[in-house]
Design goal:
Shape: globular
Structural class: mainly alpha
Helix content: over 70%
Radius of gyration: 22 Å
Largest sheet: 2 strands, antiparallel
Length: about 270
């Protein structure tokens, strides 16, 4: 406990904490979008519990991984090397490689799962035949246990990425723990409003699924050594959300002006 307070007595620790909290919250957006979309397929009464369990598991996994930092760092050691690499880039960096660590394998498997899940849900959404949809409109709703299992699988992928980011930012475990707890609490507070917003706006569901598809591809690329700057990804997501918000506002205004227009047209 004394070491805990000693770390936060250093001014640079607070700067590192603030930066890491922001990074952890941003990294948690992917996890939160997946949980929101998946739990919206459950019956209304089960959704809050599923979201709480999913986010609680995310926190638990992150804390367990923090307690095993030496093992987590070891996940970056090469386990399999196929000896294949891409041509050098403009600055001499390797464009892709097949020297895989356990982290790379986990990212590739998680990315493939996300691509499969997002593609399947997009198909269910645009299929004209009555079928199960992302927002729970179908007869064959997702089972509670199945939803929790899928959330656990993706929690593992996102948790490892989150903890490796924390390890790269600071050497102080107390800062990592506080940043992770704060970020997960923000996820917990945001989960309900985000899930309700996604459920009430079908076009946002498609946008969120497109995000998951893109995130899955980025995870796969990262596993093959192609590191796409996260800033580009989140900037593209933010711009897409901004455009969708404009569309939502425009549709809302059109709905409010249509009755008035119809009344004027009926007036002799």
């Amino acid at each position: 406990m004394a070491d805990f307070f000693a770390v936060f007595a250093m001014p640079e620790a607070w700067a590192a904490l603030a930066t890491l909290i922001v990074l952890e919250i941003v990294l948690g957006i992917d996890n939160l979008v997946f949980i929101s979309i998946l739990t919206n397929k459950l019956p209304e009464k089960q959704r809050p519990m599923a979201r709480q369990i999913g986010i609680g598991l995310a926190l638990g996994l992150r804390l367990v991984l923090l307690a095993a930092i030496a093992w987590i760092v070891g996940l970056t050691s090469t386990m399999i090397d196929l000896g294949i690499s891409g041509p050098p880039g403009e600055h001499g960096e390797v464009t892709f490689e097949t020297a895989f660590s356990w982290r790379d394998i986990i990212l590739i498997v998680g990315g493939l799962f996300l691509v499969w899940k997002a593609t399947t849900e997009i198909h269910h959404t645009i299929d004209p035949e009555p079928s199960e949809t992302v927002f729970g409109g179908g007869k064959a709703g997702l089972g509670f246990a199945s939803a929790i299992t899928q959330i656990i699988l993706l929690d593992m992928v996102f948790s490892i990425d989150s903890i490796l980011t924390a390890v790269g930012m600071t050497d102080h475990l107390p800062i990592m723990v506080v940043a992770v707890v704060v970020a997960v609490l923000v996820m917990l507070l945001s989960a309900g409003p985000l899930a309700r917003f996604i459920s009430a706006n079908p076009t946002v569901v498609m946008l969120a699924l497109a995000f998951l598809l893109m995130i899955g591809m980025v995870l796969i690329a990262d596993g093959f050594g192609v590191h796409v700057p996260k800033g580009y990804i989140y900037a593209a997501m933010a711009f897409s959300v901004f455009v969708e918000v404009l569309n939502l506002v425009a549709r809302k205004k059109n709905k409010t002006t249509e009755p008035a227009t119809e009344r004027r047209a009926d007036t002799p």
